Amino acid sequence: MLEARSLSLARQSRQLFSHISFMLRPGQALLLEGRNGAGKTSMLRILAGLARPDEGDVYWQGEKISNSALFRDDLLYLGHQPAVNLELTPFENLRYLSALHGDNPQSIAEILAAVGLAGYEDVPSGNLSAGQQRRVALSRLWLSNSKLWILDEPLTALDVRAVAGLEKRFADHVANGGMLIVTTHQAAILPQQATIQLRLGEIQQEVES
Ligand SMILES: Nc1ncnc2c1ncn2[C@@H]1O[C@H](COP(=O)(O)OP(=O)(O)OP(=O)(O)O)[C@@H](O)[C@H]1O
Prior knowledge:
- By secondary structure, this protein is an alpha/beta fold.
- Helices cover about 30% and strands about 25% of the residues.
- It is built from 7 helices and 9 strands, in the order βββαββαβααααβαββ.
- The protein has helices spanning about 40-45, 70-75, 90-100, 110-115, 130-140, 140-145, 160-175, and strands at about 1-10, 15-25, 30-35, 55-60, 65, 75-80, 150, 180-185, 195-200.
- The strands form 2 sheets. The protein has a 5-stranded parallel beta sheet with strand order 6-7-8-3-9, with helices on both faces. Strands 2-1-4-5 form a 4-stranded antiparallel beta sheet, covered by helices on one side.
- The longest helix is centred in the last third of the chain and has 16 residues, at about 160-175.
- The protein binds adenosine-5'-triphosphate.
- The site of adenosine-5'-triphosphate has 11 residues, from helix 1.
């Protein structure tokens, strides 16, 4: 279980969020919503242990994530920019990631086909379109057995077909007891019954100095 306890963060004299608490259990998804600049990426980075809040803490299986070796193994974080080595082909990118993630029942060719990159396996990733590069990055979701996925705007640049593939992947992950935290403006792709919503930025005040 992931638990956020009383998270607060100010940036550039603005209180982005104050005393946000929630629990995310196995088989649940969290949809993080809010307008541009509301603090969604900042919140995701805190939940992933990449940044510290001004107040509060995040716990994984009852332990602070900063102290939890388990958390690093259980987490898959995909940030705003697709983390793809542009000098490597999709096949080479996946071979590298596959070595990091360990055993996988699916072959690299199968995963590339699943994300719609059949026929592009050997093209340098720098020569792929933005949506194709995003597909390479998202193929980690097929490689990984991580329990918790934290994804920042994963649908950027994806076409309808790729979005449908991701929707199915999300549903399978959650149905298998995985957890998912995602920012997206397309809420409909999350499994509705299993999704809780958190909206940031409704009230933002100037921080008193
Ligand atoms: N490292 C930083 N230093 C200073 N200000 C920052 C930093 N990171 C974010 N901010 C500010 O915090 C606010 C929230 O940024 P954040 O990226 O979390 O918003 P967001 O909700 O993800 O926005 P978007 O929908 O546009 O991606 C913005 O005003 C941004 O300028």
